[in-house]
Automatic annotation (TrEMBL):
Domain of life from the UniProt record: Bacteria
Pfam families on file: BKACE
InterPro entries: Aldolase_TIM, BKACE
The species this protein was found in: Candidatus Desulfacyla euxinica
Necessary cofactors: Zn(2+)
Zinc is among the record's keywords: yes
Keyword Zinc tagged: yes
Taxonomic lineage: Bacteria, Deltaproteobacteria, Candidatus Desulfacyla
This protein's UniProt keywords: Metal-binding, Transferase, Zinc
Descriptive protein name: 3-keto-5-aminohexanoate cleavage protein
GO MF annotations, alphabetized: 3-keto-5-aminohexanoate cleavage activity; metal ion binding
Length: 285
């Protein structure tokens, strides 16, 4: 079986320390947890940034501080998030791409809705629509192409694979493409079942690579299915705050340790960061 790339999404733009106090927010915490994940067997990290008040930011300086800190101590593949958050404009979201020219950056290839409802108090805790037109998407794709950044194409419903094919046709994305299947967000079409994962993975153009991102309780079951199907996995506290049912994660390295254990049991060897670069067709460091 091909070596397994373990990516860790260390922290997101939605949940904060209020949801899990161990969630890293500040650059020094993010860097420290990235190093621990690398030691545990991660090949890549997916990075979001926050300002000193803990609000999501896309500022290239903050991303730059995190990237420099991770690069100083590890050879991890670094994927920067261009997903942004409410009140962050499209231009701001992708500003770090030309500024930092990351190896990988997330590319949400369509519009998505995310929300969390508090049933007890009957109100929305978060309610965010990432609204992107085709020309917005083309702009993001071309910014990545120009910077030499490989897009990590985030797929929230199968139709978004068609968008990737369209942008490849017009020369804004080049093959081989790398995809993430985000599975288990209510209201989005990638239902977290084996059937859906099989369908998604079989719908990709020849030569593509992919990883599965299971949200919340779906994280480890979907990761295991992904590993069995020959895909790669993303785990970590951006997507799931619990290391097992009812038990809050103490840090991100715990997720890597758990995946390494499962991969060992099913006979899937783990990729080093440089092996991940080979698999993804990234330049050597
Ligand atoms: N929040 C995840 C479900 C991004 O950062 O651009 C998908 C994600 C997207 O990580
Ligand atoms: Zn993200």
């Amino acid at each position: 079986m091909e070596k397994l790339i373990i990516t860790v999404a260390l922290t997101g733009a939605q949940q904060g320390k209020g949801a899990n106090p161990n969630l890293p927010e500040q650059p020094e915490e993010i860097i420290q947890q990235a190093i621990e994940c690398w030691r545990a067997g991660a090949a890549a990290v997916h990075v979001h940034a926050r300002d000193r008040e803990g609000k999501p930011t896309a500022a290239p300086e903050v991303f730059g501080e995190i990237v420099d800190g991770i690069k100083a101590k590890t050879d991890l593949v670094i994927c920067l998030s261009t997903g942004g958050a409410a009140k962050i404009s499209l231009q701001e979201r992708i500003g770090m791409v030309p500024a930092l020219k990351p190896e990988l950056a997330s590319f949400n290839i369509g519009s998505t809705m995310t929300g969390r409802y508090d049933f007890e108090n009957q109100k929305w805790l978060s309610d965010f629509t990432l609204s992107q037109s085709y020309s917005d998407l083309e702009m993001i794709a071309r910014a990545m192409l120009e910077a030499g950044t490989k897009p990590e194409i985030e797929i929230y419903d199968p139709g978004m694979i068609n968008n990737a094919l369209l942008f490849e046709k017009i020369g804004a994305i080049v093959k081989p493409m790398h995809f993430s299947f985000v599975m288990g967000i209510p209201g989005q079409i990638n239902t977290p079942t084996p059937k859906h994962l099989l369908y998604l993975s079989e719908s990709l153009p020849e030569g593509s690579t992919w990883q599965v991102i299971g949200i919340g309780v779906h994280q480890f079951p979907m990761a295991t299915m992904g590993m069995l199907l020959g895909g790669h996995v993303r785990v970590g506290m951006e997507d799931n705050l619990y290391i097992s049912r009812g038990i809050m994660a103490e840090n991100n390295a715990q997720f890597v340790e758990k995946i390494v254990r499962i991969a060992g049991e099913i006979g899937r060897p783990i990729a080093t960061p440089d092996e991940a670069r080979d698999i993804l067709g990234l330049k050597k460091r």
